[in-house]
Amino acid sequence: MASRADHLRSCLGCKFVQRAKEFTQRGCPNCEAILEMMQDTDQVIRCTTSNYDGLIALIKPEESWVAKWQRIEKRVPGLYAVKTEGNLPQDLQERMRGGG
Ligand SMILES: [Zn+2]
């Protein structure tokens, strides 16, 4: 069984997918300002999930039909889940909606 830290997880805010340890090291490239996962393993667990379906590679967000379909035009290129299970904690959902 692979080490837990090597498992891919999907951000519950934007569905960005990377390894758990990368969320801990760098946070989410889209949501870090709100979710503040960097150097906080508990927060990574709360704000990401290993329970997701499908993976799509987003290369050029502004041109991709996938981006329009997934409404992820403004997100960084990378790997995204098609569907995630679970929700952000309530307070963080409100911060995400608030826009900032
Ligand atoms: Zn995110």
From TrEMBL:
<dbReference type="InterPro" id="IPR038510">
    <property type="entry name" value="Spt4_sf"/>
</dbReference>
<feature type="domain" description="Spt4/RpoE2 zinc finger">
    <location>
        <begin position="8"/>
        <end position="85"/>
    </location>
</feature>
<dbReference type="GO" id="GO:0140673">
    <property type="term" value="P:transcription elongation-coupled chromatin remodeling"/>
</dbReference>
<dbReference type="InterPro" id="IPR029040">
    <property type="entry name" value="RPABC4/Spt4"/>
</dbReference>
<dbReference type="InterPro" id="IPR009287">
    <property type="entry name" value="Spt4"/>
</dbReference>
<protein>
    <recommendedName>
        <fullName>Transcription elongation factor SPT4</fullName>
    </recommendedName>
</protein>
<keyword id="KW-0137">Centromere</keyword>
<keyword id="KW-0539">Nucleus</keyword>
<dbReference type="GO" id="GO:0006355">
    <property type="term" value="P:regulation of DNA-templated transcription"/>
</dbReference>
<dbReference type="GO" id="GO:0008270">
    <property type="term" value="F:zinc ion binding"/>
</dbReference>
<dbReference type="GO" id="GO:0000775">
    <property type="term" value="C:chromosome, centromeric region"/>
</dbReference>
<dbReference type="InterPro" id="IPR022800">
    <property type="entry name" value="Spt4/RpoE2_Znf"/>
</dbReference>
<dbReference type="Pfam" id="PF06093">
    <property type="entry name" value="Spt4"/>
</dbReference>
<comment type="similarity">
    <text>Belongs to the SPT4 family.</text>
</comment>
<dbReference type="GO" id="GO:0000993">
    <property type="term" value="F:RNA polymerase II complex binding"/>
</dbReference>
<keyword id="KW-0804">Transcription</keyword>
<dbReference type="GO" id="GO:0032044">
    <property type="term" value="C:DSIF complex"/>
</dbReference>
